[in-house]
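step 4 of 6: structure.
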Amino acid sequence: MTTISVTVNGKQYTHDVEPRTLLVHFLREQLNLTGTHIGCDTSQCGACVVHINGVSVKSCTTLAVQADGAQVTTIEGLADGATLHPLQEGFWEKHGLQCGYCTPGMIMAAADLLKNNPNPSDDEIRHGLEGNLCRCTGYENIVKAVRYAADKMSAASVS
Amino acid sequence: MTTEIKERIVGRSIKRREDPKLITGKGSYIDDIKLAGMLHVALVRSPYAHATITSIDARAALAMPGVVAVFTGADMLDINPLPCAWAAGRVKNNVNTPRALAVGTVRHVGEAVAMVLAEDRYIARDAADLVEVEYDALPVVVDAKKATEPGAPQLHENAPQNIVMEWDCGDKAKADAAFASAEVTVAEPIINQRLIPTPMETRGAITRYDEATGEFTVWMTSQAPHVMRLLLTAFVFGIPETKLRCISPNVGGGFGQKIFCYNDMAFTMWAARKLGRPVKFVEDRSENYKASTHGRDHITDAELAGTKDGRITGLRVKTYANLGGYLSTIAPGIPTTLYGRILSGVYKIPAAYCHVTGVYTNTAMVDAYRGAGRPEASYLIERMIDRYAGEIGMDPAEVRRKNFIQPEDFPYDNGLGMLPYDSGNYEPALDKALAMAGYADFRTAQAEARQNGTYLGLGISSYVEVCGVAPSAWVGLAGEGWGAGLFESANVRVHLTGKVAVTTGSLPHGQGLETTFAQVVADELGVPYDDVEIQWGDTQGTPFGYGTYGSRSLTVGGTAIKKSLDKIKEKAKKLAAHMLEANEADIVFEDGKAYVKGSPDKAKTIGEIALQASLAYSLPAGMEPFLDETSYYDPPNCTFPFGTHISIVEVDIETGRIALKRYIAVDDCGNQINPLIVQGQIHGGIVQGLAQALYERAVYDEDGQLLSGTLMDYAIPTAEMAPHIETAHTVTPSPVNPLGVKGAGEAGTIASAQCVMNAVIDALAPFGVKHMQMPATPERVWKAIHGA
Amino acid sequence: MIPSIFAYFAPTSVAEAIGLLTQYGDEAKVLAGGHSLLPAMKLRLAAPGVLIDINKIAELRGVVINGQINIGALTTWHTIEHHVGLKGVCGVLPEAVAQIGDIQVRNRGTLGGALAHADPSADATAVVLALDAQIRTHGPNGERTIAASDFFTDMLSTALEPSELITAVICHKLGAGEGAAYVKFPHPASRYAIVGAAAYVKLSDGKISTCRVAVTGAGPVPTRQGDTEQAMLGSDGSAEAVAKAAKVSGATMDILGDIHASEDYRRAMVKVYTKRALTTAIARARG
């Protein structure tokens, strides 16, 4: 067992973990943050995407010990209190989800995408979400949802 | 009290009420559920596709700290194998179904041989690796056609030549005669490759057993928890249904794979009872790929006959349907009722015949996958129409138009034993799609592009499908062979405060039923949308229902709600007459209010009526308190949505890589309650279908090893691999149900594979390509071009 | 989905890491980005007894551009992809790196990790070969530099000694008359290269004076295409010359087939992608 200290969604946690504990299992099993999902075992699907120090990662392909000392943000920490993040709002407005299983990872990946490219074209959105699989929506409305958020966030940064 | 008329919300694209918890990470999926004292299961799975188990040694696993028990199939002989609830109708069926854990023989790679129960999932996994199983390998067959040949390895003693059933439909003599006298015939081998459904959430089950009462509670990733309760109690465990409660929490996509009764439901129940502790099992993705059901996998010879001027005169089809190592819950029904009986599609074909051989092979079980039988049928007829059009040198759009069933032909009997098509008007959908695609100018542009070395192709797919399969008298044991009926249920209660609770046997897992159903209820009762609660998913507290699949939940489940609402309104009118001291015959109920005809100012709201019904101090003689009505709706017929899709592709002839340039979908699913949700269903369906055309295939090698066993090998589309989709619709209400709805969940998938394949083959016409098997991988396309 | 048990070390210096590697030998695996290793461990295709996580060795990170380009072994794909300075002096690197995996993979995956793992379908291997990069390593016996052309020895095998660590990759800055390109046919599911081709050319007086072409994905080892390079030398870089040279690409190389692409098809694609990479590289060299 190794002791790690991680700040998740602004709250600090100190836990003993086996070194082999995957970050996604640490979040889900030890911290009960079950919004981060597991959809594959080969790092393809992106259901487990969270941010470590502001950068999106697949938490199924990261050891919990590697997050020692880091700031982790999960889907549960994205909204500002009761105010949804523009991406959450966009997914709701544009019907960007059906079963909702890929949604947390998709939103966290999209947040990183918009950080690097605040005004992406539809093609850039599609390319930027290549690490996330959705089996329900055909992606059409996911693209619209990300566009909605991009527009809203750039409008907010201008005003 | 307000008097303005409440705005109707049926037909409006309101955003989903399901979403707030899902976008904030507060959904509750199976793996999110933790129970005190819960044990975790890891499975030992067969690495062989066909073998005799000679020994299982669990001593090392049991010695590991944290391991509580290891069980094998031999421990569970006190429960029955899983049932097959659908024996293909009126033919002999050689039924073999899986046990909770294998006993004696394994018949596909990944079959569960032993279960390890441990205090956490990490320990369980480690211990499973320590269970030593010895096997004697047996010969393997994975191809359905080869499995029926003399000398092929035999999977089950009671199924000679591995044949599950021989089934046919249509008129063989008439079809043979049509071919004998045909001006033109075309024939193609058509392979509808095996697919893996891949809901983003894998499957799983958690069981808690109450020793004091003998009651089980099973949380399951199921599209049909009521059916699971029936199958697990009456067939597997032999206990009363009342001793099992099944709960589907949020389910992360199903696409058919989560309809069925699986071994994990049974072995978690068995182990929870044995050990007196809750037991949890959730698959890894690679386990899901090896051991949960797959879809499609047909090997077919198809023939079409017609005149030189484009009139189709006959269709003949012979299909081998691979059903896997055992029969899954409704497996034999998919390549029969849902395939053979709809093969003639949107066309008047005077003579059609289909023969299907269902076959066991050393592969994962095959059962319904989005569309289930109908994509295979639609792919076949639409591919053959293009092939025929090419043969006679006629525009494929015109061949379609010329042979369409006409509006005046409905209800239409297709001669294949399907119930009469309810309604349709195929030409406007075709015309709309052609107009959107700019079809009139496309051929010129295509010819010019070819001059510049750019190879464009356009594909058309005009489809019809069958939704809301019913009535029970037709689909059930006496008819098509289902082990049960296919009705749906709903209970509606108007509480004292006027709030409305609806419980449904349907099981939404992405379809937006909470929103759609609430829209219907709000309008019918004239109550605020937010006052309506839709409850589902728990067999304790919802009336028996068959679940959500086959695009049936709005047509059948929604109509069950409508029927309960009608009963509520009838009772409300009776009570209002009593309250208003009027004659019931003079009472009008509209917009949530009941009043005497001509006096809308003296109305009683549904809330006031509900309060009166609940307090019950003044009811008409003989009236029971409360507004609470349950309905079971068994439709008189199926519904038949239709439409035309068009795609345009560009082929890089140097590499064979295909770019999807445009995708146009014109669908008719009857009336739309929530167009935003309908559109979402269409989008998703299309991408799953075109993925079959371009990307997806499950591949077994000769030894029965699944080569496409992870998401690194099995290519489901990313956003970049999916096209932008242009949608439009026509509206031809269904006369079958009072909502006039037809279903939209599978239409996209049923329409799209052949739409893209027809486009690819059109692009390759200059190279003499007339047909190609799916998926049109770059290599296949390149070989077709370069004759390699 | 669950790795086997291992002992975990997170050294903070190269010397400490090498000490651990020396101590544990074959039992140990180095964890850099982990996006090849951890998936293999989760599927239990790999089960190292000791994991040496080098991510805390800060000196291994970062890109330094002076007379040449020095990229620390632990520099992530993301850093390379978005590095402003690199675009001007060695644009092929960000170009190739942008085609690796997905954003999350690029946020974690590292250049050194990919080279040490030497996946036959990796993208970066072809690029370092075409750039004739130098791979700087550190081991118990000190530092050494291995030419990329000597580095990839066999399927998943390199010239790296068991106790050695890659510390940096060094390549030269591309100037006027030089051009390079990487083009790729991605696997639809894994996004690795079914075939990837990297090309570098230098023009002198309008003629090609240096040419290097490397192919990944097609065979067990990323491979320089000597025949193609020879065919290009002295040519004017015309479409005809490129087409002719591309025809011999892959001719002497081992090519593998699988369910996604047969040997025949891969062989054909090696030629097509060689042609495309050369065409773009030459256009860039012409400026």
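step 5 of 6: annotate
 - The domain at 2-77 of chain A is CATH 3.10.20.30 (Ubiquitin-like (UB roll)).
 - The helical segments of chain A are 23-30, 86-93, 103-116, 122-128, 140-158.
step 6 of 6: archive
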